[in-house]
Amino acid sequence: MKVLVTGVSGYIGSHAALELLRAGHEVSGFDNLSNSSEEAVRRVRELAGKPLAFTKLDLLDADGLKTLLAQGFDAVMHFAGLKAVGESVEKPALYRRNNVDGSRNLFEAMQKAGCRRLVFSSSCTVYGEVKKNPVDEKHPRSAVNPYGQTKLDVEDMGFALSKKDPRWKIALLRYFNPVGADPSGRLGEDPRGTPNNLMPFVMQTAVGRRDKVRVFGDDYPTPDGTCVRDYIHVTDLALGHLAALEKLDSFAGAEAVNLGTGHGRSVLEVLAAASKAAGRRIPYEIAPQRAGDAAAIWADPALALEKLGWRAERDLDAMCADHWRWQKDNPAGY
Ligand code: UD1
To answer: Is a pLDDT exceeding 90 seen at residue 54?
Structure first.
């Protein structure tokens, strides 16, 4: 298939583009490069040994989107968006504009071009305060911050589009916590500034860029008192997108599917696995709980297996080994 990838130079977009090329698809991508580097695209080309057309473009450029979509694509994988929870609380309008208005522009350009296959990067954040683990797709949705609200809004746009025009086929993939890197060590997560997320912070500490990790809370009602999350290898996640793309025509309009492993791991378990991978003790201290963190959330991944024939294969040790290889070989990122 001829696939357009939005946010192609970002962490998940670049890994998805690589797996699409490896599977024999033709890939074009765009990014506004606000939080990523075009070097990621060059490395995807080098790893795949195949061309990947790149355009610097912003989702807010509605005319630019229409021109690009007019090239004719079979499907779009939509990753472009802002994703920092804290920043979204400070700048809710920025998040609405980029993530929601930007997605609307994209969908309008797709409709105009007659491209109605879409795989969207949603998040387990749409489950809001989790009532029971593991979480399945029927769990009620709610937003606990403006970032989460944008994911809900774009999901709703997807449901509305397919209701209005049943030719739309949309996979709303709800990711749990993506970590890891392509095993080559050439592609990986390269957050600008201080990382908000656990794994990049842990690995930057292991490589000496940070003094120590702060473990946000050890008094949660979990086995070791630290928060539990469902970490998933970014390559597994990318392969989940590929599976969704290949099964999209069997979708009844827009459908949500969890992409997680089904296993919850604590912050201390992640630190232990990361220390093992890096071959050194990673210093940490216990800090107060971070506002807004849930004690525990992990996925029920059954629907992904049933609908997409996909399941996560890589364990926490592989996630840490691959993330570490990327960090060690690229200590300052791209
Ligand atoms: C966060 C967002 C989520 C978003 C995802 C991707 C919140 C509440 N949720 O998920 O909506 O989809 O990022 O960007 O922000 N931790 C530490 N020390 C650190 C960093 C994290 O102990 O320096 C702990 C956190 O308390 C948490 C776990 O590590 O329990 C994972 O944190 P993080 O990587 O930020 O992901 P989430 O908070 O699960």
So the answer is: yes
